[in-house]
Amino acid sequence: MAAPYARVGEPRTPRPLPDAETLRVRDRRHVWHTWTPLDADRSALTLSHGSGHHVWDIEGRAYLDASALNSTCGYAHPDIVRAIAEQAARLHHADLSVASHEPVGVLAERLAGHAPPGLDKTLFVNSGSEGFDAAVMMAVSHWAHLGRPRPRIVTFARGYQGATLLSRSLSTLPRNRHLLDTPLPVTRVELPDEPRALRHPGALSALLSAFEEAVGHDPDDLPAAVVVEPFLNVGGAVVLPPGFLRGLRALCDATGALLVLDEVFTAYGRSGRMFACQREDVVPDIIVSSKGLTGGYVPLAAVTVHNRVYDTFAADPVIGGLRYGHTTSGHAVACAAALATLDMLEKLRLPERAEELGACLLRRLASLAGAPGVTDVRGLGLIAVVETDSEGRADRILARARDCGLLLRRIGSAVVAVPPLVIDDEGVAAVADGLAEAVAYTAD
Ligand SMILES: Cc1ncc(COP(=O)(O)O)c(C=O)c1O
C-alpha cells in the first residue's frame, strides 16, 4: 500500500540486510520482546534505518515516526553519530567509582545549568527504572541520615516509574503488579477514570486534597517523598491540571516530604520546556530524566539532585556517600551522545519549538473531538492524545495509520502521537491528517 504520510527521501547509507523472512524467522525463534504477549509477532514491523523523523522497514517502506518516545532529535543525526564515534575512539568507558572523565563532568555541569536552581548534582544510570530505584533509595536514605527515618512514599496509583522491582512496586497498574510485595510502605492516590475530568473546575483542588490526605498530618508517619510524573505516560496519557506541581511543592514544603519528579518522558523538550516543572517554576528535590537525554541514541538516565539532599549523604554510616551505582554509570559514549543532543536542543530551541508545534498539532486535531468513537483530545508540549471509546478502536486506528505510513502509539484506549521534536511544519500536518484519516476510516 502507498504511504502518503511518509515523505520518502533517500536514506543515509543503509547497510544491506538479509532478506525479510530470514530476519523474521530469527526474531520469532530467539528474541523475547518486552511487554509483549507470547503470541504477538513484533517482527511484522522490522525496521532497517531512519533519517530525521522517518524510518524505513526492511522491505523499503517509509514511515513518519510519531511513536518516537525516545527519538527527540530524529534518526541518524550526523552530529550525534560523530560525537558517539569520536568518544568511542578516544575513551569509551571509565568506572566512576574509580575515576572520572571529561564528558561526564561537562554533562553534569550543563544539566545543573538547565535544571532549576540548587539541583547541582547528577548521578547517571542506564534507564529510567534504575533512576527511580536510586531516587527512592536516596529519599529514604536522606531521612535516615538526618536521624528521622521516613520509609513511606506517596505517589499516583496509576503512575509508572519503571520495570525494576522497586520502581514497579510504587504502582498498582496491572502490568506492574508482581508476585512480591512492595519493599516500602506506599500510599497511592487514585485519578478519575476519565482523564478529561481533570479539566473540570475543582479538579485541581480535589487532586491536591487527595495528596494532602495521603501525606497526612501524623508527625511520626510523614512520607520521605512524593513521587509523580508531570504527565502520566503509561498510566493513561493523562494531562494533569495546571498548578498541580506548584500545589504539591507547597504540600511538600509544609511537611518536609521531598518532591521527586519523574521527568523520564517529559524532560529535554518533550513537554515544551527543558523540564516540565519549569512550566510552573517549581524546584523539585530530585528529577529523574532519561529518554530525550540522548535522544534514544544510547541508553542513559540522570538523577539530578538538590544540594540539600546530596549534603546529607556525608553522614552515611557505611561509606559516607552514596551506596549505589553501576559499572556503566556515566558511560563516556552515552555522555558524549547527551552533550551532542543538548547542543541540538539549545541550537534549534527544540523545547520552544515543541511547544509551538504541539499547539499547532492540537489545533489541527481539535475537530476530532466530536468524531465517532473519539472521547477526548488533549496534549502537552509535543504530545498529542486522541482518546477513543475502546482499546480495539485505538488498535484499528494504529493499524490503519501504519498501513498509510504513519507510526503512532497506543496507551489503553488512547492513541498518542509523539513525533521527534525536529519534525517540521509539513510533518506535523502529515501527522494530523494521517490520524484524522485513520479515525474516519475506523468509524463504525
Ligand atoms: C514516565 C516514565 N517513567 C519511567 C519509565 C521507565 O524508564 P525505562 O523504560 O528507561 O526504564 C518510563 C518508561 O517508559 C516512563 O515513561
TrEMBL record:
Pfam families: Aminotran_3. It comes from the Bacteria. Keywords: Aminotransferase, Pyridoxal phosphate, Transferase. PANTHER family: AMINOTRANSFERASE CLASS III. Belongs to the class-III pyridoxal-phosphate-dependent aminotransferase family. This is Aminotransferase class III-fold pyridoxal phosphate-dependent enzyme. InterPro entries: Aminotrans_3, Aminotrans_3_PPA_site, Class-III_PLP-dep_AT, PyrdxlP-dep_Trfase, PyrdxlP-dep_Trfase_major, PyrdxlP-dep_Trfase_small. GO terms for molecular function: transaminase activity. Its cofactor is pyridoxal 5'-phosphate.
